[in-house]
């Protein structure tokens, strides 16, 4: 990929530096006192929400590891490298918030795998890394789409939807960087 | 022929049972592996074909007993599930994983559309029988 390809969207990308998970979402996840007041009657509900949040946490941890691999591969050139590090930072924020929410619900946050067995041998160029990252981001969007409707706590669902939006932006930007239609469809699945 | 009160009561009970009983999940007849590959992209945040990641690998899925992929740490619920994966059992599970196996680690709403499940299963069958993917 040439700098010429990247220049037209620099102003668009620069906006991502300002994006953080909203303070309200963090408060909803980490500071909502009602999450700490789980009654026996709602224990199964809380267990289900823990399962869903832990699935999301596992996916976030995998994304963090994947961007680490990309950043250390030597295949990414600036400004794409900076973008990858920025996206990794978002995933770290998501993971931190999700882990706190799981703990708040009385669950045990999953821990990152020691080895994700990423296809290192197939990553030979910047485009390969971006395509791999895009596949994980698309999967993350779908994972959150599969989480939002079944999270019992609507505040958690709202926060998960907030993260979904971020994952979808990552996916679109990576597709743009690959020269693909960044938003190929009206509805995500 | 006259219909007595007992017959009417029996009919009403039968009707109530028919209305209230959960219908078996519909299964689509044939799947399209090409469409299924697109649907499989939804799974990639957790799954891969050839390796265990957040979820277990799919190579070797058909004919494998649930909860037995080598090297993957399953939930106790999945270890106890007891089914062997085939078209029907995969279709049933992925429609609503958390309802079918309460306690599964797969915190996901499921694939609700029968045709999408059929397409996904068709792709999984094709991909997992490809020696270039699953040796």
What is the secondary structure topology, with strand pairs?
The complex is a heterodimer of chains A (189) and B (135).
Chain A: H1 3-6, H2 10-14, H3 23-30, H4 43-72, H5 80-104, H6 126-145, H7 154-177
Helix pairs in contact in A: 3-7, 4-5, 4-6, 5-7, 6-7
Chain B: H1 5-20, H2 33-40, H3 76-81, H4 87-95, H5 97-100, H6 114-128
Short recap of the structure:
With 189 residues, chain A is mainly alpha-helical.
What does this structure look like?
- The complex is a heterodimer of chains A (189) and B (135).
- With 189 residues, chain A is mostly helical.
- Helix content of chain A is 61%, strand content 0%.
- In chain A, helix 3 crosses helix 7 and helix 4 runs antiparallel to helix 5.
- The longest helix of chain A is centred in the N-terminal third of the chain and has 30 residues.
- Chain A is globular.
- The N terminus of chain A is likely disordered.
- Chain B has 135 residues and is mainly alpha-helical.
- Chain B has six helices and no strands.
- Chain B is globular.
- About 7% of the residues of chain B have low confidence.
- At the A-B interface, helix 4 and helix 6 of A face loops of B.
Short descriptors:
heterodimer; A: mainly alpha; 7 helices; B: 6 helices
Strand content of chain A: under 5%
Mean pLDDT of chain B: 87
Give the N-terminus to C-terminus distance of chain A in angstroms.
Answer: 29 Å
Class from helix and strand fractions of chain B: mainly alpha
Helix share bin of chain A: 55-70%
The overall strand count of chain A is 0
Estimated share of beta-strand residues of chain B = under 5%
Which radius of gyration of chain B do the C-alpha atoms yield?
19 Å
CA-CA gap between termini of chain B: 69 Å
SSE order of chain B, one letter for each helix or strand = HHHHHH
Provide the residue-averaged pLDDT of chain A: 84
What is the quaternary state of this protein? heterodimer
- Radius of gyration of chain A (CA) equals 17 Å
Number of strands of chain B: 0
């Amino acid at each position: 990929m040439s700098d010429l390809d990247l220049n037209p969207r620099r102003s668009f990308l620069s906006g991502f530096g300002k994006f953080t998970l909203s303070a309200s979402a963090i408060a909803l996840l980490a500071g909502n006192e009602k999450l700490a007041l789980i009654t026996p009657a709602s224990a199964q509900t809380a267990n289900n929400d823990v399962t869903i949040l832990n699935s999301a946490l596992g996916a976030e941890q995998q994304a963090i590891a994947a961007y680490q691999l990309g950043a250390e591969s030597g295949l990414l050139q600036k400004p794409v490298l900076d973008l990858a590090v920025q996206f990794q930072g978002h995933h770290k924020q998501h993971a931190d918030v999700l882990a706190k929410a799981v703990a708040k619900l009385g669950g045990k946050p999953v821990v990152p795998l020691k080895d994700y067995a990423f296809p290192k041998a197939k990553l030979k160029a910047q485009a390969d890394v971006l395509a791999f990252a895009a596949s994980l981001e698309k999967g993350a969007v779908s994972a959150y789409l599969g989480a939002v409707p079944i999270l019992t706590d609507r505040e958690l669902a709202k926060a998960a939807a907030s993260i979904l939006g971020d994952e979808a932006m990552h996916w679109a930007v990576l597709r743009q960087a690959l020269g693909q239609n960044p938003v190929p469809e009206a509805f995500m699945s | 022929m006259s219909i007595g009160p007992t017959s009417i009561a029996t009919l009403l009970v039968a009707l109530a049972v028919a209305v209230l009983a959960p219908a078996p999940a519909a299964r689509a007849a044939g799947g399209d592996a090409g469409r299924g590959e697109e649907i499989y992209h939804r799974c990639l945040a957790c799954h891969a074909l050839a390796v265990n990641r957040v979820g277990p690998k799919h190579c070797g899925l058909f004919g494998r007993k649930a909860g037995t992929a080598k090297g993957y740490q399953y939930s106790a619920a999945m270890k106890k599930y007891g089914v062997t994966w085939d078209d029907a059992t995969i279709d049933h599970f992925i429609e609503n994983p958390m309802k079918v196996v309460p306690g599964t680690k797969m915190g996901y709403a499921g694939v609700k559309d029968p045709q999408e499940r059929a397409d996904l299963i068709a792709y999984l069958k094709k991909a997992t029988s490809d020696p270039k993917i699953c040796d």
